[in-house]
Amino acid sequence: MTSGPEQISDVSIGPHHLAGILGVPKGATAIVVFAHGSGSGRNSPRNNQVAAGLRAAGFATLLLDLLSEQEERDRSNVFDIGLLASRLAEATDWVHARPEFAMLPVGYFGASTGAAAALVAAAERQNVGAMVSRGGRPDLAGTALRAVTAPTQLIVGGADLPVIPLNRAAFDELSCEKNFVIVPRATHLFEEPGALEEVIEHARRWFRQFLSSPLPGTSDEWVFADRREAGRRLVTALAKFGNDNPVVLALPRGGVPVAFEVAQALNAPLDVVLVRKIGAPGHEELGLGAVVDGAKAQVVMNDEIVRAIEPGADYLKAETSRQLAEIERRRRLYRDSEPPVDIADRTVIVIDDGIATGGTMRAVLKALSRVGVRRLVLAVPVAPRDTLESLKAEADEIICLMTPESFFAVGMHYRDFNQTSDREVVELLRRAKGNGGRG
After folding, report:
1. CATH fold of 227-434, please?
2. How far does CA 416 lie from the centroid of its chain?
3. For residues 385 and 18, what is the distance between their CA atoms, to the nearest angstrom?
């Protein structure tokens, strides 16, 4: 074993005493188990290079021999996908049984026939967080491909001509979150300069997106890969409302990708709640109040700030009219002249990508509470604790996944916080409607 920023040790795994190499960086947030292909094992220089790259990104790694030396002498075992998958399952059980890994998400990295074994194991166990295949033979997983729920990324070399169509066919069979990557000019073993480094970067991004550890104490620097991933993580906390005939309302634009994932999981209609801040004269970022759209638009003012600023009745009237015009523009764009979803006497889940000061959200909650909803739930991925405390009186329940001690901006807690476009909002609302999401 070596010590320092990471620990590397030889291990014996499971009832078949599989030989493995365990690498654990300090503060590991997940663990990736490697499934090697024919003629390869735990000492594969290429997979060890990938493992080192993953450890540098904060992932523990386990490289292991799925077969004993005696078993490898029988070449039929090398292509026995069921046997290889069962050994990978043994290794996964071994990982979960160790106290230091019991709560960490587990991912698979498969190469050659090991990719098929990883997919079969993932389909059977359903407790694998993500999967990456490098130059693999996922087609050998057969009908198991349709049962895989773990987000799966297939990486092939652009010059590996026989394997590309096999991966394409397997990719088409997958119904999970998936991605297909071709590394230009790379051959089957990715021996070309820079090819394996590109594999490492793709794998690192994929595992970061889908193996983000929910454990307390992990870095606040990036909590969510993007808004869609934040929505998927909200689903678990909101599943209890699935039988309450809920409606999901998103604050556009950034709240829509988050809410889309929730609405799909709860089989609930998705709509937008259109709101525009009324800014102070010369200081538009300071909210005097907000205009909230509905069957009848509502103006919710922050009386304390209005008294302090004294903007004047004419200013408030003009600014309110300006924001109402913008709401009308967005209404035509987002709803295409369709009426909003009826929320009377229903459980309404209001979602945004995060909250900072809470002024706009307070106006939304106040406005919605006036229209006779049965239950009003606020759900966000991240917000300051004191802001949530100030909103308690406005909602029946507040659900927030992360309340960092040091909070500066919502975007600091996403790796990808690119601005959501009107086009993306329209597309997601269209897809939600196509899936019954405007019922």
Report:
1. Rossmann fold (3.40.50)
2. 11
3. 47
- Rounded to the nearest 5 percent, the helix, strand and coil shares of the chain are 40, 25, 35
**Distance (Å, whole) CA 188 – CA 134:** 9
User: Which residues of the chain are in CATH 3.40.50.1820 domains?
Assistant: 6-210
- d(CA 142, CA 292) in angstroms, rounded, equals 52
d(CA 124, CA 211) in angstroms, rounded, equals: 19
Q: How far apart are CA 323 and CA 316, in angstroms?
A: 11
Find the distance separating the first CA and the last CA of the chain, reported in whole Å: 59
CB atoms within 10 A of CB 102: 9
Backbone phi, psi, residue 41, to 5°:
-165, -160
The three-state DSSP-derived secondary structure of 166-222 is HHHHHHHHCCCCEEEEEECCCCCCCCCCCHHHHHHHHHHHHHHHHCCCCCCCCCCCC
For 103, counting Cβ atoms within 10 Å of its Cβ (0-12 exposed, 13-18 middle, 19+ buried), the class is: exposed
Residue 149 has pLDDT above 70, yes or no: yes
Cis peptide bond upstream of 276, omega within 30: no
Name the H helices within 68-176.
69-73, 75-78, 81-97, 113-125, 163-173
Give 426: exposed, middle or buried? Use CB within 10 Å, 0-12, 13-18, 19+. Answer: middle
Q: What is the DSSP letter of 432?
A: H
The fold adopted by the segment(s) 6-210 is: Rossmann fold (3.40.50)
Q: How many CB atoms lie within 10 A of CB 419?
A: 8
For 388-391, which contacts have Cβ atoms below 8 Å and span 24 or more sequence positions? Answer: 388/355, 388/358, 390/358, 390/362, 391/355, 391/358, 391/361, 391/362, 391/365
List every span in the chain annotated with CATH 3.40.50.2020: 227-434
Contact 220, 413 (CB under 8 A): yes
pLDDT digit string (tens) for 405-437?
Answer: 766 678 778 878 888 899 999 999 999 886 544
Sequence-ordered list of residues with C-beta below 8 angstroms from that of 212, at least 6 positions apart, any chain: 29, 30, 105, 218, 223, 224, 225, 229, 233
- pLDDT above 60 (res 194): yes
**Predicted TM-score (pTM) above 0.90:** no
In contact, 103 and 183? CB cutoff 8 Å: no
276 beta partners: 291
